[in-house]
Amino acid sequence: MTPLHFRSATAIAAAIRSGEITARAALEHFLDRVDQHNGPLNAVIYQDREGARARADAADAARAAGQELGPLHGVPMTIKESYQLPGSPTTYGIPAMKDNVTQRTAVAISRLQAAGANIFGKTNVPIRLADFQSYNDIYGTTHNPWDLSRTPGGSSGGSAAALAAGLTSLEMGSDIGGSIRNPAHFCGVFGHKGTWNLVPPRGHSLDESVSPSDISVVGPLARSADDLELAMMLVAGDDDADWRGFSDQLPGLDGPLSDLTIGIWASDPICPTSAAVGARLQAVADALGRAGATIDEHSRPDFSAAHSYETFNGLLSSAMAARSSDEDFKRAQTRLATLSPDDQSPLAKQLRWQTMTLRDWSRLNEARNRIRWAWHRYFGEVDFLITPVMPVTAFPHDHGREGSRVIDIDGQAWPYFNQTFWAGLAGVAYLPATVFPAGLATDGLPVGLQIIGPAYSDLRTIGLAQRLEAMGFGFTPPPAYSA
Known about the structure:
The protein is 36% helix and 14% strand. It is an alpha+beta fold. Helix 2 (23-41) runs antiparallel to helix 3, helix 5 packs parallel to helix 6 and helix 9 (305-321) crosses helix 11 (346-354).
């Protein structure tokens, strides 16, 4: 039988409902796992043990009285540090914010709590949620449970590491440049970046802001695709101030695989895929083909990859700059003023994007919406597109200066942030993307792939991940944590 700490959240909820285990016993089991394994991993960086115990006891009392708290009745889980939760720190890993203790609950988190989830802790992030690694001067470095010398990814790195090591049953992360998808890939778990603003992000912030950030979404990570589906059904839907006529009845995936045409985008000159990752993508494509799906490795949306990536980088830089302090923004303006207007270096482009006018942003937004229409036409012919999430498996920790970092792809050095290319395909166009474990690479590390679908096809991309999980492409515990 699967140990409790590696069961899905839906299975744990069923065990609590049936009386196989109490909510208090389930909580204590995960707290014991944290005590046993979190030290070297450093994934869980805040805990509310006594509050969680009181909530678990209340869940058990409610069950004894015949009351149902919801589909996650008594299920222990953790959330990314960047969510607001009363009495807990929300710092984004920024040292100046280390004393920022929030007093409200993020919308997505309140919906999970209303479904019965018992949130007992928070997980680590990189500074400003802006790296493929999860380390900062407040909480330190989180390590990958498959190899402690390697990154678990970022910015939801603590989330993915805690799930893979069996320290929690379910997680909520966030994603603007792959921050759910990259850690899911590196740690061998499932993750879902939803259609933009399908899940209200209010409360995923350092302050009281209520505006959704461009590109950025909040969403779940899990050890099963069923958990992604449940979590999305619980947290999706309009926020209180939204139009009451909006319908969030999302279509699911029906019918056999033989009805589907699935595109494959295996590599690209902007960010080539390593042989190890490419081999797992080919294995998935072959398996889907044997199951009857039509595999299309040649058609693409009608835009150039370079144009999509440039548009994504501009809008991403603008969105990230909106989070910066007034001092940092002024420094960027001052630095840009020293450069020639003809300078087309990466630094000059970055500074222009970070400080652009509304006029220039609107032009980029027009380019983005033309890309969205190209995707719309593409998905008139193809049901899904499967691509890499990152070009390589989890790489060794590298805390050097950002400008000096590179990524090694089969022996060749590539710019570190070129890795956002694959995440940016779905991100810039507001599309859903579900990551599923595609098996282990030749180096023994997990590979995740992303399923991209048209806007609001979230339950369909998750549905394909469920089919693939049933075919054997699912979570495997890291050897050191499998007991």
